[in-house]
Amino acid sequence: MTPDQFREYGHAVVDWVADYWAGLAAGPDGARPPVQPPVSPGWVAGALPPTVPERGEPFEAVLADLDRIVVPATTHWQHPSYFGYFPANTSGPSVLGDLVCAGLGTQGMLWSTGPACTELETVTLDWLVDLLGLPARFRSDGPGGGVIQDSASSAALVATLVALHRASDGRWRESGVQDRFTVYASTQGHSSIEKAARIAGLGDRAVRLVDVDERLAMRPDALAAQIAGDRAGGATPALVVATVGTTSTTAVDPLAAIGALCREQQIWLHVDAAYAGAAATCPELRWTHAGVELADSYCFDPHKWLLTGFDCDAFWVADRSELVQALTVLPEYLRNAATATGAVIDYRDWQVPLGRRFRALKLWFVLRWYGVEGLRAHVRTGVALADRFAGWVRADDRFELVAPHPFSLICFRLRAPDGVNEALLHRLNATGSLFLTHTKVRDRFVLRLAIGAPATAAGHVAAAWRQIQQAATELLAG
Amino acid sequence: MTPDQFREYGHAVVDWVADYWAGLAAGPDGARPPVQPPVSPGWVAGALPPTVPERGEPFEAVLADLDRIVVPATTHWQHPSYFGYFPANTSGPSVLGDLVCAGLGTQGMLWSTGPACTELETVTLDWLVDLLGLPARFRSDGPGGGVIQDSASSAALVATLVALHRASDGRWRESGVQDRFTVYASTQGHSSIEKAARIAGLGDRAVRLVDVDERLAMRPDALAAQIAGDRAGGATPALVVATVGTTSTTAVDPLAAIGALCREQQIWLHVDAAYAGAAATCPELRWTHAGVELADSYCFDPHKWLLTGFDCDAFWVADRSELVQALTVLPEYLRNAATATGAVIDYRDWQVPLGRRFRALKLWFVLRWYGVEGLRAHVRTGVALADRFAGWVRADDRFELVAPHPFSLICFRLRAPDGVNEALLHRLNATGSLFLTHTKVRDRFVLRLAIGAPATAAGHVAAAWRQIQQAATELLAG
């Protein structure tokens, strides 16, 4: 494809994306696509030919198939009535930053293979330290530093690895998992903690799920007891993962108490704020991060709630030298003058893969386009809409809130058996006009309404509540 | 950013990318940027402000800083005279597929969160099985299946994990690394194999680097002896990684003999064809893959030499059920009706992270735009240019080829001490008009010239050779 063809088709694709977004954001009377498509498994595969075409096809044919095959089978995460899981924010500046990334085609494994790719990442991650009010020692001008991982799962894995490196006094690198290491999270911790422990060769049994209090936050006393018991049993506690904003209900673990215990016990503390870290952009929400200065590592996902498209997990360590020691392997073909000086960051040593995209571009575009004000406004909108929704739930005796809602996720249920709540969720999602997911809290089936898609406005949340009330009325009437 | 603003700025960014490419591809008289920028560490960071702007900035300011800060500090992987490492191909259709991916903002962790995202990936990976002449059992309509990983490093890690799962009869999942597992690759294997073993908790000591023959290919007899010795010493051999096209010199390990041994010894065979897999699109180059039907897993990178932008590693397993068993963790909040039927693929269980982008779009755009003919033509151009370059090296008595060149990488050196060859590389790269990297072969310093950037044509390779000859003349004259 020549640059001129790219220009022509590129304009067409930009228009296609703009039209797609405009279609999703159409007013209540516009014909918006169903949030979750009503397709059966195999529908997409059945619509595609069996092999690569022998000769190249016109670009117009590919573009037409987006509308024919892809859109009708897409769960629309950018739909204003998308309330499932957590949001997967994107935005215009993010998409355009990613477009520049793709156009440059830089592979930033080493500083020398992408100086701008490396330094822009370091600087934007330093910016985020200040924006979120994180500890200054996470900044690259101190002993720490930040890096973009693809996801909080990968951040949890990297934290696990460097924690093992530290807990074994560096023997792990050469000798592997020799001790009986243990890892701690609350019963509400993310599944990626278990997955990281499994990948790291500890096995699922190494993961201790610590009891929570009535707010679904980790109990420091239970953590202390578990650690003491494990030590008595001959295990080596290596890592505690505390969560700010659990996936199930956005519970906030008490970082200060957990951190103090980790310091005393010399255990690596990783703080997973994948979704809720974005809230720390707002000073009035920073209480959720009290104690974060005790963390050895911390991550949050701008790709969840900070207007930056997936994949963009921001991960920091307080001591970058340990991280690099844990993960570096230097074959001859990667040696270069800049690396040899020791004066540069080679991000390949901060992650599992060797190669890396220029992901800092989209983050940079977002931070500059929105500014501090714009980013805070986005978060505050979500929190305010969630507050309003919670008020409506509280005011309807048929419903109950089942967990605190410090951010923009509301967990609620009908005061009715699980089956009725399951039926309610199914009935709502089957309409296609909104999308919610579920969890279990204290073994009860609970609906989750996560606000934060960039296009979501007050009217969409109000419409969702009307629809939920209406569906409940129909269900309860039998 | 409104859809209309996105339209306006999007056209501007598309034009920016087109202009960037046109600038790189300018004829010999055009003022092309240096392939590797002459910037010092800290230059980019120093050009950026210390914090996120308080208020959002105009998009034009961001775009202007691309030219002021980013481009002058970018190693131009898409430059026609980029001959370093391996190519990191991108192309117009790839960039535009990625643009659609960013615009949709789909998070395809589950089939249900992205039916098109999931099925288009399954189908395009099935297409590639046929395009490359890979074993039919890798196809999703048999027991196997393909998935896009970010990189061959991650593929090596996933292969390591499922190999441990098999070698431990499934105990690894719960109990972690209990046995003394060993992993095998040739001395020329990629550093990601060692990194994967480290991440998986085996430690660097678990990796056995097997001796190679005069073509730098793994010696099956040496592998057999090493395995027998390890078994006698109480170890459990778990994984052999054979390479088609090593990073250092593109050596080809004999898959048939290695595969037969792995079958006999019941050891998982992973084939890493990260760079050279693209060559299998051409029937006349499939001899390099003889024996691949014995592999338990296989990967190659369309993002290296098949016109698809990073990140796109295509990874297959012959038995997908083992892979899913090894990696699945299913918390309540991810349960859904489609998963419960067992009739869909949830790709989150095929990889380390939970979240995933709609990467199949760029691959689909590339396969359709170029077709089989276009893809083969790209590979054949690289191979033919490499042949021609090798002929020139052979015809100049001052130089020698140091390894076979079945693909499009030439490894060569001056018949002179290492210091002279190092000086030659430095002198060439300092001009900025081309970029090569180096390796060591049998402890001697060797220059690598990797052909395959999409913009590279015969004239660029001829110009590189003239420049190499000229620099050698100057150097040898002292």
Plain-language structure description:
- The structure is a homodimer of 478-residue chains.
- With 478 residues, chain A is α/β, with parallel strands linked by helices.
- Chain A has 3 domains: 3-74, Up-down Bundle (dopa decarboxylase, N-terminal domain), CATH 1.20.1340; 106-357, Type I PLP-dependent aspartate aminotransferase-like (Major domain) (Aspartate Aminotransferase, domain 2, 3-Layer(aba) Sandwich); 367-476, Aspartate Aminotransferase, domain 1, CATH 3.90.1150.10.
- Helix content of chain A is 44%, strand content 12%.
- Chain A contains 16 helices and 11 strands.
- Chain A has helices at 3-24, 43-47, 59-70, 92-104, 115-132, 152-167, 171-175, 191-199, 220-232, 255-265, 302-305, 320-327, 337-341, 360-395, 418-431, 458-476; strands spanning 145-149, 181-186, 207-210, 236-243, 268-272, 297-300, 313-317, 399-401, 409-414, 437-441, 444-450.
- In chain A, the strands form 2 sheets. Chain A has a 7-stranded mixed sheet with strand order 1-7-6-5-4-2-3, sandwiched between helices.
- In chain A, β4, α10 and β5 form a beta-alpha-beta unit.
- In chain A, α4 runs antiparallel to α14, α5 packs parallel to α14 and α15 packs across α16.
- The radius of gyration of chain A is 24 Å and the shape is globular.
- The mean pLDDT of chain A is 96.
- Chains A and B meet through α1, α2, α3, α4 and α5 of A and α1, α2, α3, α4 and α5 of B.
